[in-house]
Amino acid sequence: MKLTDLNSTLSALYMMRKDHRVPRKSKILIAIAVGYVLSPIDLIPDFIPFLGQLDDLLIVPALVGLAVKSIPNEVMEEYKTKARQTKLTKRLNTITFVIIVAWILIAVWLLRIILKLL
């Protein structure tokens, strides 16, 4: 999946939250996924290296995937098309780019500190 597809899917899910054609099950699964991401409580604490982030990388996409599968295809395509045409997707692309650049800068900074210590 391309980054733009992911962003348009996330934008579409946000936009369809009030649509009556979207099953309640999908809305609940998406709410649980968002709540899990924002919650300070995890199944596996984040301070445990690798495993702490692994549960986030598995649970949230699984919940969103289940939600998307239960949404009728024509509704999903309609909202993806709307999402591609809105500023929300463009804003998500910008935010995603900024986050990636920030992580790269942090990684370079940490690498420089580690190399100075050696």
Q: Describe it for me?
A:
The protein has 118 residues and is an all-alpha fold. The chain has one domain (3-117). It is built from 5 helices and no strands. The protein has helices at 3-15, 24-38, 51-69, 73-85, 87-117. Helix 1 (3-15) packs across helix 4 (73-85), helix 1 (3-15) crosses helix 5 (87-117) and helix 2 (24-38) runs antiparallel to helix 3 (51-69). The longest helix is centred in the last third of the chain and has 31 residues, at 87-117. The radius of gyration is 17 Å and the shape is flat. The model has no long low-confidence stretch (mean pLDDT 82).
Strand content: under 5%
Q: How many beta-strand segments?
A: 0
- Kindly report how far apart the N and C termini lie: 40 Å
- The radius of gyration over CA amounts to 17 Å
Largest sheet: none
SSE order: HHHHH
Count of helical stretches: 5
Indicate the mean pLDDT.
82
| Helix share bin | over 70%
Overall tally of domains? 1
Structural class: mainly alpha
Query: Overall 3D geometry?
Result: flat
Pick out the low-confidence regions. Answer: none
